[in-house]
Every structure is written in C-alpha cells, then in structure tokens.
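lol ok so funny story. i was supposed to be doing the assay writeup but got distracted and ended up predicting the structure for this chain instead. priorities right. anyway since i did it might as well share w the group, maybe its usefull for someone
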Amino acid sequence: MPRSSMNWNEAMKKRRLLLSVCLLLALPAAARQLSSQVTELDAVPRLRPEYAVPDEPDMLFYIERSTNSNTVVYAARRGANGALDTATPVEAFWRWFNVDGAKKPLNFIERMMAYGVKANRAAAGQPVTFEITSLPERALTLDLDDKKHPEALIQIGGHTARLVYVYLNVIEGGLMPKVPSLDIFGIDKSSGKALHEHIVQN
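and the output, tada:
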C-alpha cells in the first residue's frame, strides 16, 4: 500500500479513537453511566509490559492505549529559576513509541477535547490544581515530593495517591472504536501501597 494511503488510514483511525475517548469521558457524569472498583495492590502492574515506559524530565504521569504503544506524557514545567511554572504548570505531548519514539505535540482537537490540560491559577503559596480536558471532575494537584520532584496527586477510592499512569482499553471495529473501560494506577501517599481504579462504561 502506498505510504500516502497508509498515513491517511492511520490518521482516520486516530480521529475515530479520539472521538471515542471524548464520547466516553467528556459527557456529564450522569450521562456516562460509569462504575468503578478500587483495589489495593503490592505494586503498580504493567498492563502492557511490552510497551516502552516514558522517562522524561519532571514527568508526572502518562496515558497508554491498547491500540498501540504511542503514549501521552504529562510533565511539570519549571520557570527560569527552577520553580514550578504556575502560569502553565503542565505540558502534555506524545511519545510515538510505535514509530520512532519521537516527541510530538498534541494537535488542537486532542488538546481541546481529550488529552489537554486546564490549570487553575493558584494564589501565592497555594498548590496548583489542574484537570485533563476530558475528565474535569477528577481534579489533580501539582505538588513536590520529599525529593523536590514534581508529582500529580489524585483521589482514588478516598485515598490521596500519586498518579502513575492511565490505560485506555480500546476495541476497534465498526464505524467507531469503543472505549469500554479505563484503568487508573497510583501510589497511596500514606501507605505506599499501589492503588488500581478500574472504570467501566455500563
């Protein structure tokens, strides 16, 4: 198949998947009819151990998808003085591990409807909070750990946890791929135990 046709097909798949993520996550909670279950584990599992794990400066967490190993990375941004940038505190971008590992920006639709970040300006001395565009009700807090490394804190089953990664389960087929479930993995800040929240679309 000519490269131009392959690129067009991949672009169409990406657009359909993006729309599916938006349909699953961007609707009001009442319309989504989602249910979740939280489990405590000894360690954070790798659902796809064959995927590369991103290793970025000041990385907060990342999003993997079942379709391929291309990964969305979220990293804290610092100002010239090394302090966290409170104006634009979080950067989101692709690592195209399924191609060559290159760093790629999110496009406009991805930023506005799915993987983008909305940060809330904080008063001096107050922590910065932010949300992923498609999951606004799950507020994240940008903080520094004991070693001054940035981390994203999230509530999982009533526990404050450091978010490690999110996994989207995608089923392709038909006109539109489906995202029937997603998994959130974090580390409980109090106990150090791994937490897994499995969210299902009913």
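Residues 127 and 142 are 6 Å apart (CA to CA). The longest strand covers residues 159-171.
back to the writeup now i swear
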